[in-house]
Specification:
Length: 261
């Protein structure tokens, strides 16, 4: 695990975008795992800029999204299908046939989840997974207490998570109680992980994930076991890290050839 502390979300997102761009240039048919929510929006804007101004080509890229609300149609204003379309897909040249998200209207949810896992395997696995982190350490919608070996499945949201996401709906009562999410085991099989965290509200979760014990009480802590996980943080989200100065020193003194890895 590498901890990269930057002055602000824009700087963190820029570095993360460079990491993704390098992957795509080295492997044009890369498979990306994508996240939603407010945290990765700046990252997606930077990737769109790289595409439009720098010619970053997504024409052979495939994507799998982490999750979707159960019961929401793709065109619902708060669906993750709609979010991804508005914040990323319409700005780059990923072929529509290469884009996959869980189906919030799936009739047979267990079968759909099994099919989603198979689609990931058929694509050759995820090369790079983008993650945010919840205020309680959840990744995807793998809530506090989720199995660290879990696969794509239905999950019931905690009230804390529903309250955190209520800003995307007209009122709290409109936030669904259930989602389809990739499991922690699924996430851990990605070849590399880019986790973004911004704001003081994420500081305790980040510190627990990076420096605490590996525990289902902080699902992101399992990333300590991942062979290539990078946390891109702003100063406030890094505020509870005991070894913050060490992480800054390490990043500042990396050899130049590691800059975008």
């Amino acid at each position: 695990m590498e901890i990269i502390i930057t002055p602000d979300p824009a700087a963190a997102s820029h570095l993360a975008a460079r990491r993704i761009a390098r992957l795509i240039r080295e492997k044009p048919d890369a498979v990306l795992g994508l996240a939603t929510g407010s945290t990765p929006v700046t990252l997606y804007k930077e990737l769109i800029r790289m595409h439009r101004e720098g010619g970053l080509d997504f024409s052979r890229v495939s994507t799998f999204n982490l999750d979707e609300y159960l019961g929401l149609a793709p065109d619902h204003a708060a669906s993750y299908h709609r979010f991804m379309e508005e914040n990323f897909f319409q700005g780059v040249n990923i072929p529509r046939g290469n884009i996959r998200l869980p189906d919030g209207l799936a009739k047979d949810v267990p079968a759909h989840c099994a099919d989603y896992e198979q689609e990931i395997r058929d694509a050759g696995g995820i090369d790079l997974q983008v993650l945010g982190i919840g205020s309680d350490g959840h990744i995807g919608f793998n809530e506090h207490g989720s199995s660290l070996a879990s696969r794509t499945r239905i999950k019931t949201l905690t009230e804390r998570t529903r309250e955190d996401n209520a800003r995307f709906f007209d009122k709290l009562e409109d936030v669904p109680h259930h989602v389809i999410t990739m499991g922690i085991g699924t996430i851990m099989e990605s070849r590399s992980v880019v986790l973004l965290a911004f704001g003081a509200g994420k500081a305790d979760a980040v510190a627990g994930a990076a420096e605490g014990p590996i525990t289902a009480s902080n699902p992101a802590s399992i990333l300590q076991m991942h062979p290539d996980a990078k946390f891109y943080l702003d100063e406030p989200s890094a505020g509870a890290l005991e070894r913050a100065e060490y992480y800054k020193w390490v990043f500042k003194n990396k050899p130049a050839w590691q800059a975008d890895q």
